[in-house]
Amino acid sequence: MGNFQSHMVELDTETIVEGGVTFVQATVTNTRGTSQAVRLENRLEGPPWPPRRAGIETPEWDGDYWEGTVQPGERRGLGYASPAEPIDQPLTVVDVRRVTSADRRDTSAVLRDLDGWRPPRALLADRR
């Protein structure tokens, strides 16, 4: 089990190995009074296998990196698997910064960006 503390966030990790796969469980705690954008890096000597929802990798993951927002005084859990051997500190904090208004997008802005999107025709084809 690993533990990281800074003046902004705490990172606790635990690894479990089953069937040759290392499972990493982590908790990020925001010790500040403001929202923090946190970026973590996988340190295992193998690729991370992030969780998937409906076959799609969760959006917080990009390669070896996880990035998410942790609200003031809150904690956020995350996990992933890897074919690599476990190590004491499988994740490391690479960046922590205060969330600014530029980081926040309102719902209407997100919907405007989706306005031109349409599903592929093949998806809508009648398969009787």
TrEMBL record:
Pfam families (UniProt xref): DUF7857 (PF25256)
Annotated region Disordered: the residues are 41-85
Show the InterPro entries listed in the entry.
Answer: DUF7857
Q: What is this protein called?
A: Uncharacterized protein
